Amino acid sequence: MTLQCPLVNSTSSQNQSTAHILTVLQQVLFLQSMLAELPAMLTSLETELWGKGGFVHLQRLHQMLYVYGVMLVEIVWRKEFSE
């Protein structure tokens, strides 16, 4: 009787740990399968963007921020010197 209680507690604890490890391993497996699909998806996206000229458009959008900043500086500069 005295050995049965610690043995039951130990077995229960081990079973809970095993169940938790299996759950974590299933989550890792799911994430790995998603990551395995990623290179193919990125390649198709890159091909599609190059084919449609998407990167050129993205570069143009990126440069618009600098153009906007230069225009603001020019407006302030002209306003300062006109006074």
Keywords:
83 residues; mainly alpha; 2 helices; 0% strand
Q: What proportion of the residues is helical, as a percent range? A: over 70%
- N-to-C series of helices and strands: HH
Question: What gap, in angstroms, lies between the N and C termini?
Answer: 99 Å
Radius of gyration: 31 Å
Strand content: under 5%
Total helix count? 2
Number of strands: 0
Structural class: mainly alpha
Mean pLDDT: 86
Oligomer: single chain
- Shape estimate: elongated
Structurally, how many domains make up the residues?
Answer: 2
Low-confidence stretches at least 5 residues in length (pLDDT < 50)? none
Specify the biggest β-sheet: none
What this model shows, in words?
- With 83 residues, this protein is an all-alpha fold.
- It has two domains: 1-52; 53-83.
- It is 94% helix and 0% strand.
- The protein has helices at residues 4-52, 54-82.
- It is elongated.
- The termini are far apart.
SSE topology sketch:
Layout: H1 4-52, H2 54-82
Short description:
With 83 residues, this protein is mainly α. Helix content is 94%, strand content 0%. It folds into 2 domains: 1-52; 53-83.
